[in-house]
Amino acid sequence: MTYTTVQYSLDVIKDEVRNLLHKGMISRQQPIYTLCQYIPAREWACIEYELEAFNFLLRDRIGDLVGCEKWDND
Fold it and tell me: For 44-62, what is each residue's pLDDT tens digit?
């Protein structure tokens, strides 16, 4: 049996979160731990570790993670 460990960088996590926001599956006001519904359980520990390395708490808001958004048509 072989196991592969997927490495997640903070940029990859942010891109995935922005994608979920764009699709309307999550909102910026929800806590970060909401993301565990959309990430496979076997990969969640890696995500959580990376977030903690950058001082994000699971109770922080998703908006804190992705920061402000730029709109091209403003």
Answer: 999 999 999 999 999 999 9
The half-sphere exposure of 43 on its side-chain side, counting CA atoms within 13 A, is 13
How far lies 41's CA from each of 22, 37, 47, 70, in Å? Answer: 23, 9, 10, 31
pTM over 0.90: no
φ, ψ (nearest 5 deg) of residue 68: -80, 150
Instruction: Compute the distance between CA of residue 24 and CA of residue 42 in angstroms, rounded to an integer.
Output: 24
CB 56 within 8 A of CB 65: yes
25, 47, 27, 28: which is closest to 36 by C-alpha? 47
Alpha carbons 64 and 7: distance in angstroms, whole number: 22
